[in-house]
Specification:
It is found in: Cytoplasm. The protein is 55% helix and 7% strand. By secondary structure, the protein is mostly helical. Bound molecules: adenosine-5'-triphosphate and magnesium ion. Adenosine-5'-triphosphate binds next to α1.
């Protein structure tokens, strides 16, 4: 079975629709066909200040949401990044392999740091793509199911894997991105030019899965479309409508072409009202299931302990090999 690895940050509490459609939904599907490793990346979350109690709660909340979305700890390895110390260790090695200019070209850092200002943005935020490289290479992942915004980081991962292999001998699998065209980038409902994001969306444009379903329905009904009235999938000219059609199509399993036909001659109102209903039907049971998992933190923690143990077995082997190849003296 080919191996996949991916992660999600325990920030902001709720996952949003982009996280689900762009990433988590694929994780659930891939656990059936792949040797799957999924983690809550708390070490990435702390690249910006986090309240300790909130971070702890949000980490469990992220795990509960992953289970509610359909991850099954019997079918995949589910763990918390900081439970596997090899991530930070290989992260350092990868920092020593990355060019400063190379890291400076990462657009996510540029975007995120621009918002914070040069002195508030941390060095951790600067090197977080490099930690992500370590996350992936530790597990010798063949594929990385993520959203489109992560493509550049997977490219960096490939470059560093090849660099290391070239310098020290074949050590790392060179991974490929696994990004779906239809859902790789879900846009902010109020600004269809920018991706929906935990950290940067407008509140009205961000669909959080754990929000009150009524509020979610309202956000969908007031999504920005355009001044035209034709319901047609055309991301270039009609980004707002296309975003809604993509979401609708994926949540219901209906082809976009069929949706275009269904709504022919009708206004945007009909499309939005129906999609709002589809969303409510999706998020309502999701919220209930998430709460059920949260209500039993002991079970959550014990499944995370098992996950970390499975992950560590793989990660420790890769790290030992890496140290050895580089000439770090083994401890006797
Ligand atoms: P932040 O803005 O703080 O980076 P985020 O919304 O990007 O938060 P992450 O935890 O960084 O959330 O991302 C988890 C996964 O969700 C990643 O695979 C990412 O590519 C994917 N993802 C995030 N936003 C979108 C989106 N708008 N459309 C599709 N996939 C997305
Ligand atoms: Mg992100």
């Amino acid at each position: 079975r080919p191996r996949v690895l991916s992660g999600i940050q325990p920030t902001a509490g709720s996952f949003h629709l982009g996280n689900y459609l762009g990433a988590v939904r694929q994780w659930v599907a891939l656990q059936e066909s792949h040797d799957a490793f999924y983690m809550v990346v708390d070490l990435h979350a702390i690249t910006v200040p986090q309240d300790p109690a909130e971070l702890r709660a949000n980490t469990r909340l992220a795990v509960a949401q992953l289970l509610a979305a359909g991850l099954d700890p019997e079918r995949c390895t589910l763990f918390v990044q900081s439970h596997v110390p090899e991530h930070a260790q290989l992260g350092w090695i990868m920092n020593c392999l990355t060019g400063f200019g190379e890291a400076s070209r990462m657009t996510q850092f540029k975007d995120k740091s621009a918002k914070q200002g040069a002195d508030r943005a941390t060095v951790g935020l600067f090197t977080y793509p490099v930690l992500q490289v370590a996350d992936i290479l530790l597990y010798q992942a063949d594929q990385v199911p993520v959203g489109e915004d992560q493509r550049q980081h997977i490219e960096l991962t490939r470059d560093l894997a090849e660099r290391f292999n070239g310098r020290y001998g074949q050590t790392f699998t060179v991974p490929a991105p696994y990004i779906l065209k239809e859902t790789g980038k879900i846009f902010d409902l109020q600004d269809p030019a920018v991706k929906m994001s935990k950290s940067a969306s407008t509140p009205k444009g961000l669909v959080n899965l754990l929000d009150d379903p009524k509020a979610t329905a309202k956000k969908v009904r007031s999504a920005v479309t355009d001044t035209d009235t034709v319901i047609r999938f055309d991301p270039e000219k009609k980004p707002g409508v296309s975003n809604l059609l993509g979401i609708y199509s994926t949540l219901t399993g209906t082809a976009v072409a069929d949706l275009e036909q269904k709504y022919e001659g009708q206004g945007y109102g009909a499309l939005k009202t129906d999609l709002a209903e589809v969303m409510v039907e999706f998020v309502t049971p999701f919220r209930t299931r998430t709460q059920e998992y949260l209500d039993d933190p002991e079970t959550l923690d014990s499944l995370l302990a098992k996950g970390a143990e499975k992950a560590r077995a793989v990660a420790a082997e890769t790290l030992a090999q890496t140290y050895d190849r580089m000439g770090l003296l083994p401890a006797k």
